[in-house]
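Re-running GNAT family N-acetyltransferase to confirm reproducibility after the cluster update. Everything else is unchanged from the original entry.
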Amino acid sequence: MSSVIRLAELTDLDALVALENRCFSEDRISRRSFRRFIEVPRDRVLVAEQDGKLLGYSLVLMHKATRLARIYSIAVSDEARGQGLGERLVRQSETVAVEAGRIIMRLEVREDNASAIRLYRRLGYRQFGTYRDYYEDHGTALRFERRILFFEPKGAVRPVPYYPQTTDFTCGPAALMMAMAAQCPERRLTTLEELRIWREATTIFMLAGHGGCGPHGLALAGWHRGFDITAYVSQEGALFKDTVRSEQKKRVLDLVHEGFIYDLAQTDIELHHEPITISVIEDALARGDVPVILVSTWHLNRSRVPHWVTVCAMDDQFVYLHDPEIDVEEGETVADKQYLPVDRGVFEKMARYGHQQRLQAVVIVGARREMAA
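Result of re-run:
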């Protein structure tokens, strides 16, 4: 009798934990985490059993805002190795992901796990990245992906270095740093630079806590670091004033904005006050530029907060983003936030902030300028 692959149930917890402990000495998934993954409707835990004995499992995470799925962990017991069970678990993981409307399956594998790498390549997975110091023992992970729904991606995805924001309020600097590093790969991505850009580009006030960064400040920060910059902002005047109530704070925002406009006039930055169409992003990518765009996080995590992301690529159906915010409490890792495929229609809805004003803003980072000696 061959093994059967099915969705895990809470009654499988003991067997899952026992298999996890036999297969892995580090980076183990806890019983509590297994329970949460089984109970979360969005994710899938698949188990392979034969004659009532659990022989393997696959944990598939479904990103809540995109069409991305990820095999977070897969394990096969020693007694079932060499029988094709690993391949069956991967294929069934792809099936449940397709049923959930996912288009891309991703996974990570240790660079020294030659047999697993051979399997993934044979199944059509391609390596698209490397993540150093990924595992508990500081080992390196190779990142693989395969299109599991519709057609294979057209053309190569441009390599854009990934940098996660280190504070709640520095998504703008992190997104700008990724765009600049794509244009100048030797640039170092450091927390010091992230905070320096925030100090230059902050709007002073926004919502509660520290101020966020607006398009004018980010444009200036990119220009001062030697890059050609074009900015599109759909509104004139100070931005985010509706996020504060104090008239004094509104006045400060006005003064900060006036300062940004004065500084912009001393540069050759192109500033356009007009609605932003998806063709603006498409044309920028075609030129080799990297757009940094303001989005509403409602479509990412149901929170109405302005947020900056980096646009890496676009095809007929999807826009691919680097999102600098990693929610560790939700179990997210760097692997979850790189090259996120977002439906073009969803992206157009995301790329607006505010219920009434519907602000649109993008800072497009071009090539390095010839700097005067």
